[in-house]
Amino acid sequence: MSHAPAKAFLRALAGETVTPPPFWLMRQAGRYLPEYREVRAGCRGFLDLCYSPDKATEVTLQPLRRYGFSAAILFSDILVVPDALGQAVAFKEGEGPKLPPIRDGKALAKLSLEGFASHLAPVFETVSRLSKAIPAETALIGFAGAPWTVATYMVEGSGSKDFIETKKLAYGQPDVFKALIDLLVQATGDYLITQIDHGAEAIQLFDSWAGVLPEDEFEKWVIAPTQRLVERLKRERPGIPVIGFPRGAGALLLPYVEKTGVDAVSLDTGVPLEWAAKMLQPKVTVQGNLDPILLITGGEAMDRAIDRILSTLGRGPFIFNLGHGILPSTPPEHVARLAERVKAWR
């Protein structure tokens, strides 16, 4: 007979209603914390921090010491996957990531899974260290970018507002684009399974640009690859819950939840609470979805919004979070106020 996991975060992911609900925040380790900025200043570049187990472990633990979150999330970046496949990633200060773009089969053929695991060994070392260092009641989340979102960076060669090159490739040369997605499904699965083997207790898939696709393409490039990934994780590492975050998916959240097999869905700021409670929460645990700007604003506006989320979603399987990541200009004391409010809720 299996018994429910003791950690509040994992109990909520198993479908239990936990009061007060577990909580963590996307980008909880980051530039809003002075102690993070201090560690970051000692690194050559952003990826240097991701590939340094000492420093990545330290910055993951910093917000736990301050706020007592229910979960820690590995400090890394979704672009370590293309980097490990042989598409060199560079982060330019103030410009975001730069990659040599992949726009045809020839460029795609240069990528390889050879050396993938050894390239990511420092990340796995960080997961191992974290699993020993976090408090006993805290869960450890491993993560990766979902194939569609990672592919957008690989094809565009940077972040994008309109994803012209990626969509042109997906719509115009679907066979080439599918080969890229297939490679990412394989690589991401390998990456997540190794994180689990080093101590990750739950997985979050970040599909930050899911919301830019029309319905039939969303089905093809967001739902189908995610479903394949989740199926593999469930088959090879049963019992490890998966949270999907298809940001901006709107009404397509429903088929996403029904078809991908995720255990929980993270809601962006734009998802209506009552709709989520009625349509999604009976099927999966929901996570979200305070506007990160309210966390910057603080005060009564933030308190009211926190209370509304808690009273609407807190009566079912729920994890409190933001609708996207913490922004650098967030005052740390506002995060402390949020933590107190969520912990005190009944």
TrEMBL record:
Q: Which GO terms describe its biological process?
A: protoporphyrinogen IX biosynthetic process from glutamate
The record's EC number reads 4.1.1.37
Q: Is Lyase one of the keywords?
A: yes
Cite the GO molecular-function annotations of the record: uroporphyrinogen decarboxylase activity
For this UniProt record, give its keywords in alphabetical order, as a comma-separated list.
Cytoplasm, Decarboxylase, Lyase, Porphyrin biosynthesis
- Name the Pfam families for this protein: URO-D
Q: Is Cytoplasm given among the entry's keywords?
A: yes
**All copies of domain Uroporphyrinogen decarboxylase (URO-D), residue ranges:** 141-157
CC terms in the record's Gene Ontology section:
cytosol
EC class of the enzyme, as a word: lyase
Known pathway: Porphyrin-containing compound metabolism; protoporphyrin-IX biosynthesis; coproporphyrinogen-III from 5-aminolevulinate: step 4/4
Provide the family line: Belongs to the uroporphyrinogen decarboxylase family.
Protein name (Swiss-Prot/TrEMBL): uroporphyrinogen decarboxylase
